[in-house]
Amino acid sequence: MEYKLEQISPTEKKIHVTASAEEVNGALTATLALYRKSADIKGFRKGKVPSSVIEARYRKQIYSEAASDLINYHLTEIMSELKETPLSGLTFEGQNELVKDSDLAYSFTYEVIPDFELPDYKDLEIEEEEAVLDADDVEKVLNRLRENMAKLEIVKEPRKAADGDIAVLDFKGFENETPVEGVSAENFELELGRGNALEDFETIVKTLGPGEEGQGDVTFPDDFFNKELAGKTIHMKVSLHTIKEKILPEVNDDLAVNAQYASLKVMREAIEKSYLETKRQLHKSDSQKKLLDELKAKVDFALPSSVVEKHVSNMLYDTITKLERQGKDLSSTGKTEEELREEYREKAEEISKSQVFLLAVAKAESLSVTPEEVDNVLRRIAISSGQDFNSLKDFYERNNLMFDLRDSVLADKAMDFIYEQAKVTHVPAKKAKEKGEEKKDKAEPKPKEK
């Protein structure tokens, strides 16, 4: 195998690869041997099937796997010799199939960290706010715990449904007295007052008591995610079966035991400890960002386009996801996808600059990330999102997301390295009011001197 390196730009490189016919034939022979060893074909003993029969039956799979194995071997060898790690996926050109007795020629492009001189990032001075316990915040955590452990009881006294209730109901939508497809449900449970349904619909429900029926018009917003319903007014008929209300447990030892703690005292201590640790991490992250911003201001370099585009796409995806949760679509922003992408670009470039800077520090300090560290991050993602680890990992691998995840873990490791080298001074925490005024001062333009 021979290759030639071509520098396309400060952030992009192209490798031209040529493999001899001998190497191609060797790859095909090796893959064919694996198939011959495991193939189970009627009329032949296992492992004794003639190669010609194996090739005739599994030709497509053999040639595909041989090509993949050979190219992956080339990539490993080339990147090892060049001592480079691509920032994103590779873009291939040329042959992607093997031909027996013929040379293989292909090329691939990839982006790398641009060369630039790093400023001094050791022994820097930075302030970090001390973590202070806020009793009100602790009570909010306790109240959320009570909400999560609340029991639902059917309301027996005659009354109308109200905010905070869970209404069990049937509903069906009509347009010109014709049922609207997809706008109906039976024994549907709706928690009122949480914004889980359109206001017009909740208004109808709140006029009803258990066993009562009601109806009214519901107007869907123009930006409703279901285009067939957007902007329409549907006549809704509702039957309310029962009303359930949440019975919150008292804050005592019983609550703590049900939450897997020995006592209320132990539970409060655990909540306070977790709260303080979260605060510490937030203050540390704020200080790390200030430190990184100061360092980035001292350098200027070209940004890899694929990294910037990736962050733009991630921001756009987050926007679309949030809108869909609200029953809206992109049109509700009053902007096209391209306009939003352009709007996000400046922030995406700032994020990309942070990532590239930290990866450059990681390279300078010979920091690395093991497969186990990447897997641990994937496990945390799987647990927090309720997904199967192996399925999630397979998804990341199939969609070429492992490069991005590895770079993210490595960038975090570089930031931690910089912070560990810094001279950190802990200062008293600012009150929420002071922080708000500080943000306001930064946001408001200063009067020009005359």
Question: What does this molecule look like?
Answer:
- The radius of gyration is 31 Å and the shape is extended.
- Helices cover 48% and strands 20% of the residues.
- It has 450 residues and is of the alpha+beta class.
- It contains 12 helices and 11 strands.
- The protein folds into 3 domains: 2-111, Trigger factor ribosome-binding domain (Alpha-Beta Plaits); 151-247, Chitinase A, domain 3 (Roll); 263-440, Trigger factor, domain 2 (Orthogonal Bundle).
- The strands form 3 sheets. Strands 6, 7, 8, 9 and 10 form a 5-stranded antiparallel beta sheet that branches. Strands 1-2-4-3 form a 4-stranded antiparallel beta sheet.
The secondary-structure element order is EEHHEEEHEEEHEEHHHHHHHEH
**Integer-rounded radius of gyration:** 31 Å
Largest sheet: 5 strands, antiparallel
Alpha carbon gap, first and last residue: 71 Å
**DSSP summary, beta strand count:** 11
Shape: extended
